[in-house]
Amino acid sequence: MNRINFIFTVIFIVTSAVRIDVYAQEDQCFICHDVLGDKPSELFKNDIHLKMKISCSACHGGNSKSDDMDIAMSSKEGFIGVPKGNDISERCIACHSNEEKMKAYGSNLPANQHELIKNSVHWKTSITGREHILQCTTCHNAHGILKVNNPASPVHSLNIPQTCAKCHSDAVYMRLYNPSLPVDQLQKYRTSGHGILNSKRDSKAADCADCHGSHEIRTAGDIKSKVYPTNIPKTCAACHSNAEYMGGYKIPIDQYDKFKSSVHGIALFEKNDLSAPVCNSCHGNHGATPPGVESISKVCGTCHVLNAELFSGSPHKKAFDEKNYPECETCHKNHDIVTATNALLGVSDEAVCSQCHSESENVKGFKSAAEMRSLIDSLDQAVILAKELINEAEQKGMEISEAKFRLRDAQQAKLEARTMVHSFSLDKFKEIVEGKGLLVTSSVIDEAKASIDDYYFRRYGLLISILIISLLALALYLYVKKIERKNTG
Amino acid sequence: MKNFWNNLYGWFDERLELKELVNFMEKKYVPVHRHSIWYYFGGVSLFLFIIQVATGILLLFYYKGTEDLAFESIQFIMSKVEFGWLIRSIHTWSANLFILAIFIHMFSVLFEKAYRKPREVTWITGVLMFFLALGFGFSGYLLPWNELAFFATKVGSDIVGAVPLIGEPLKIFMRGGEDVTGATLSRLFGFHVALFPAIFSSLLIIHLLLVQRQGMSQPMEFEGKKKHELKKMPFFPNFFLRDLILWLLVLNVLAILAVFFPSELGQKADPFAPAPEGIKPEWYFLFMFQTLKYFPAHIWFIEGEVVGVLLFGAAGILWLLVPFWDKRSSRGERNKLINYIGLFAVMFIIVLTILGWLS
């Protein structure tokens, strides 16, 4: 097999050399400049365009057939010298946006790069005010442009991080355009799973363009950007949910599906909550890597601060560390985190506590879990009852808005109690549920009941009042009649 | 016990010469005829006004007339103050019944031509009190500082602003600025509890004194009849006690309304919130509000709304001056035109109110 490869390689090199030689005889620009041994012609030898028999004149103008320098490089022949500013890209666009021309050269490259790059942040006006921030040559080079799949090309997957870093790691340069943008992306990337694979020359590993796009690179705040919060899960899933692509990596490919139905996914996709965490919130973006077992609570804790703090101070921290349990994930899972309900707490089969605690093993925790569940259930029932009574009182037309407002404190206590679960301290939990939640609900319930009683009291009161007033009116009527009879008599 | 009352009466009589008053009362008679029922609505209006004053004073003990506290203070009255709900509901309902009673009283006077000479001033004070009652309604409506009241006041004061020349300054005066704000609340509160009651009470005293001095007006057909042909009843105690019976019945109605349909409070006013749909004024302004809706955007070169407001203004002035342009009634001649005008006004108010209610 190696022998066959060797033979083919030799044939390719020989035929290419012959082709260059034959073509070069026709391309007088290249012949002269090659003789001069200048750098552009040296680089151009390997350029894909030279291989496609595209002369220097395609970009520089002039007559490439003439060996007379005065004629070849005369303005009459359209010679423009070295293109400047946007003219550089215009020379590229002239062919690369022309589908027919590209087909004529046997290229299957898309002809929409120009259309795409128009939307790119790089296509904005540079600080000079005369040109785009980037030209095509900034990433692809000017002479010596290679195919994208050529490992030597600056836009080959293995080289893209370095190519982008030319500008993006240059603090002085980046400050001119976006001073708040970090310049350590490459450094972080090298520590990421993707970056490590890239360093190992795995071209399948994600590079900058895989996440940000190549020509159509938008700012992260642009809703159409591939790295806009709502688009990130799909951007990551493009590789991570592709069974074929991820074949050799031995990692699951169901993260996206799980995330979609998770509490975070629902917040993001259904409620359009941009503060909901997406892949990079937990894994990092440029330094993307799964959080380690010991750091999960810190990662979740960036948002769930109190829960993380309480957990770190709880007896479970030590126990989990000893058993190498992934902190939050042990009870809540990772990608498919669902809304935490009371069912997670307690000693029933579906409760997570019962995974480690039973009547015979870790008994103290078992008892605490059972009592915590009972307390939070009582609070739930009390809140439901209070709501029902308030509703009834309101329907009866009673003014009970203050008690209704106060019931929010019970809801707040419920939330606090759920947070306090992470301390795994029965006393602290009890203090909130009983000291705050049940105290409020009981006063609200009393007030609502009193309001309903008052409703009936008003009706009975009305009945009695009407009777008294009517009797009085009747008595007066009879008295008037008596007087009138007396007067008539 | 009897001696005690006699002594007490004697004590006052010695100082105030009550005997003259008693003699006057004893000699005062009320005509009895098929339209006598309408005499009672003046008394009902008075009774409802007394209730307004009494409940209003009680509400003042807890009400706070500022933008930050008005809504909350009413909420407090409705939920925490003993019988606060009852006082507020009775205040609200008696306000509505008060205006209804005035409407009935005023139209009965019109149809009976009771405004004719020598009772022109009684009519004028009555109509002015009617206008003031509407003012009470408008100013009181904003006081709970809820969403509906806020926007209704905005719409209402905008209509005032449509009056040519004086409209805009009047609107700014009424609002205490360009827009409806806490300043408007303070201002309308002041009108509601101080300015209007002071003027109303003065007019009421004049109105009642005139009624007492001139006696009840008799229907025109009674004029020319001999004394013994006229049926009458003593004002005191007969008519007074009958009045009292009606007052008790009205009190019953008020109690039923207050218990079964207590005043609602709604949402606190938020000046930055969009106006809720279907903003309508109180029922007694509805016929005017609805009429203005039917006016085209422009009539000739004047805005339709301005024309409408001017027409209502002119109608109000004509209404006030009825005794002066209806000379025929004063001469004792029948004037059917007044009946037609009155009938048209009643029908107009009823139909437009219903249309406004349904729209």
Describe this structure in words.
- The complex is a heterodimer of chains A (489) and B (359).
- Chain A has 26 helices and no strands.
- With 489 residues, chain A is an all-alpha fold.
- The radius of gyration of chain A is 39 Å and the shape is elongated.
- In chain A, helix 17 (255-261) packs across helix 18 (263-270) and helix 25 (401-420) runs antiparallel to helix 26 (426-488).
- Chain B is mostly helical.
- Helix content of chain B is 70%, strand content 3%.
- A two-stranded antiparallel sheet of chain B has the order 1-2. Chain B has a two-stranded antiparallel ribbon with strand order 3-4.
- In chain B, helix 3 runs antiparallel to helix 5 and helix 5 packs antiparallel against helix 6.
- The radius of gyration of chain B is 23 Å and the shape is globular.
- The mean pLDDT of chain B is 92.
Shape of chain B: globular
The largest β sheet of chain B comes out as: 2 strands, antiparallel
Which protein chains are joined by the largest interface, and how many residues does each one contribute?
A-B, 24 and 24 residues
How many beta-strand runs of chain B?
Answer: 4
Total DSSP helices of chain B: 15
Strand content of chain B: under 5%
What is the percentage of strand-forming residues of chain A? under 5%
Q: How far from one another are the termini of chain A?
A: 143 Å
The CATH superfamily of chain B turns out to be Cytochrome Bc1 Complex, Chain C
The largest sheet of chain A is: none
